[in-house]
Amino acid sequence: MPYWDHGYWDGGWVGGLLMLLSMVLLWGGVITVVVILVRRFAGHGGSRGGEGGEGRDGRDGYGSALRILDERYARGEIDEEEYERRRSRLRG
């Protein structure tokens, strides 16, 4: 074995550094994918926004505003004309 010291990992620290960097990138990618999947698919049963609030993606606020408008009309807080005017504004 005359060439034992001239193998692929000659110099040692460069190869070790590359292996460390590749493992950090690999595990960082795996963790990132898991976090993205959990955020996307978890929590569909709960409410994202508070009363009249807007959710993270902005879509819940539109539904909440219409729901609140419907409730105010049902309670008699606003008349039909006001209800229709505000509803048409919300629908754009």
Automatic annotation (TrEMBL):
Pfam families reported in the protein's UniProt record: SHOCT (PF09851)
Keyword Transmembrane attributed: yes
Domain SHOCT residue range list: 65-90
Keyword hit for Transmembrane: yes
Domain of life: Bacteria
Bilayer-crossing regions: 12-38
InterPro entries hit by this protein: SHOCT (IPR018649)
Keywords in alphabetical order: Membrane, Transmembrane, Transmembrane helix
Composition bias type Basic and acidic residues, residue spans: 51-60
Region listing for Disordered, in residue ranges: 43-62
Name of the protein described by the UniProt record: Putative membrane protein
Species annotation: Saccharomonospora marina XMU15
Lineage, uppermost ranks: Bacteria, Bacillati, Actinomycetota, Actinomycetes, Pseudonocardiales
